Amino acid sequence: MTPLAATATTHLATTVATPTLASFLAVLALLWLLGYAAVCAADPFGCCRRCKGPGKTLKPNGRVKRWCRRCDGTGLRLRIGRRLFNYLRRLHRDAAR
Q1: In terms of DSSP bridges, do strands 56-58 and 45-47 run parallel, antiparallel, or are they unpaired?
Q2: 78: part of which helix (H) or strand (E)?
Q3: pLDDT tens-digit readout, 53-79
């Protein structure tokens, strides 16, 4: 009897829908995106990356050396997601006119 290599056999991997790595990563990315959107809606400002929050650099004696130019001394910056949301909202508003 010859072995039939091309017979229709059912394997567990083909009959049971197993989640693949790509679908797991897609769900994980979607959850991260929803979380980041919630953070951008609740707190649109984050710490300035250059001065890390205080808005100034200090001399060794504690006096202000200079104010941060990136954040204008506020210590805050607008998050990238909020910037994108504002751009899309402005684009939608201008298109309706």
Answers
A1: unpaired
A2: strand 76-78
A3: 787 777 788 777 788 888 888 889 999
61 φ/ψ sector (left φ>0, alpha ψ -120 to 50, else beta): alpha
Q: How is residue 91 annotated by DSSP?
A: H
**Residue 39 identity:** V
Query: Based on C-alpha coordinates, what's the Rg of the chain?
Result: 27
How far is Cα 29 from Cα 31, in angstroms, rounded to an integer? 5
- CA dist 45 to 19, 35, 40, 48, 68, Å? 37, 15, 8, 9, 16
| pTM for this predicted structure | 0.61
Q: Report pLDDT for 15.
A: 53
CB-based contact 75:68 (threshold 8 Å) = yes
Task: Name the pLDDT band for 52 (thresholds 50, 70, 90).
Answer: confident
